[in-house]
Design a protein that fits this description.
heterodimer, A: alpha+beta, five-stranded antiparallel sheet, 18 strands, B: alpha+beta, three-stranded mixed sheet
Amino acid sequence: MPRIKRKEREAMLIEVVMPQLGESVVEGVVVKWLVEAGDLVAKDQPLVEISTDKVDAEIPSPSAGRVTQILVKPGETVPILEVLAKIETEPSASLPAPEAPPKWDEETEGFPGHMARTSGPPIPAPPRVEPSAPAPPPPPATGRIRITPVVARMASEHGLDLSKIPGTGIDGRVTRKDVEGYLASGQAPSAAPAVARPAATPPSSAKATEGKPVVAEATQAKAGPAPKAALAEGDQVVPWTPIRKKIAEHMVRSKQISPHVHIFAEVDMHRVAGVRAKEKKEGVNLTYLPFVIHAAAKALRETPIMNATVAGESTVLKKDIHIAVAVDTSRGLLVPVLRHADRMPLKEISAAMDDFGARAKSGKISPDELSGGTFSITNPGIKGNLFGTPIINQPQVGILRLGQIVKRPVVIDVDGEETVVIRPMMYLCCAYDHRVIDGVVGNGFLYRVREILEAGDFS
Amino acid sequence: MKGRSVEIVWLGEVAYREALDLQFSYLERRATRRIPDTMLLLTHPHVYTLGRGGDEANLLVSKGTLASEGISVERVGRGGDVTYHGPGQLVGYPIVLMEKPDVHKFVRSIEAALIDALGAFRVESRRIEGLTGVWAGERKIASIGVGIRKWVTYHGFALNVTTDLSRFRRIHLCGLKGREATSIAEETGCAPAMEAVRDAVAAACNRRLEGFA
């Protein structure tokens, strides 16, 4: 804890000491200084990394001000309570400090996730184990309000907006008594305690037995104090399921990280249709998807950079071709991976896709089957519309999307004569990551997929 | 209001870097008291991580070989040397605000929680004085490495459930040459479901970490 010395009327000198990180901890090692003498620091800005035999810790600045002295060198072992540095607070520094950008480890610099965090919006809350449990309440609006930890915790537990509570403490601070009084007065929103367990909300069990989902109860608790925005009568608030949150997070991240280029090929599928018809006579039902997977795998083998992942500032060209295929299930979008798709005959691809489809419906796809993809294909099916622009499945660099197959009159060349014929046509969209792939290669890849499909040779 | 316990969040499989970002996101929110103490439970895809002082010589396989298998090597701002994470391993990242920090007690509480949970699967485990982690006999079944930033803990533990132990033979485990890793499956001969272990660990953490700060 800081020892405070009054230096003159306004400025104060604060000593930053080696904290006691536990009863049995007597010393710590200074690992690295994160600031230099002379630096201006914000309150809570990390000053120094220390290390004990059990943990590493960053010591935040007890106050805003200027670092006047650094007294211990990196590598030195220091007993607890010994002074590490001195900070002079500025007269203006007694105001709440602006949120200083945290000083991250340089090891994390340059990774996409990290960049997304510092420059983009905050990472959305990930899925929780109990979707029916209420989420933490919104942060109390503590703009200028200074409160004690006890009050903060009470506010958090009861979902209170402290700006709404009249404070009787110093400078109008909201005290514990104020909060207790406010709660007793019944003005507080009837939000469930933030950490309530399902067992702690008995009314819901009665409702649940009447066939109403317990989720509705939690929804009210969550939506109650939060956005007082335009909720008209009859509007429904549907909280995201864990899988929905995961999809949302994944999609936003991909759009932030990868500059997507979308290109389209118009593919004449009549030879594919011919092969399908022939197989059908032999009792084998093939959809169009396995043909596209087969063609993509072949083209990927010829265009290694499309079969790649991004790690930091490197591209990893993958040896194996594992194609992730999006499958829509009742639980949401799943993307099982077809391993070594380039080594599989068409019928094997088809059988594997049928198997995935069946098991996805019954929820029996193992996590191992959902990871390790090196390229993705999405097929929105017979109602998939003419074309769409898919989002890259990170950390991959490319994805194909099948459009609806529609019979159209097209002009072809027969013995030097131009003729109009009816053909099953498909728009095939390819998205590629322009960080890694440039136009010539990206276009060449999609062109090649088209060539393979139009040639109709799937042996 | 009393008996403040730890929120358990199950994330499924999350890439190492992504999980690190998530920890910092939670940590920021915990430091500003916008969320309660939280335990993130998850698994990682194959990855080797090196601590700040980690020696690449403790990786017995070249980074190129690993890269060709799609396995990344990450250098992390934690203490300690090299370790492995991958499928079949339950990873826990406690995001706990330490109002009165006692890091020894905290690490001991995590060890105790894991020993409790392992007991439920008939694995007898223990601490070894001077070494952090949980041990079944002389073999390490769970590693622990905790960091603190803004008085909030991050990083945490990795418990081997059905981990492919050959992955550990490609490193000198946490710099301790000759020490071996083990797993619940290895110790008992049967592979419990990750979900069952997750639930046991969650319950034990709730008991042992409750009202910690």
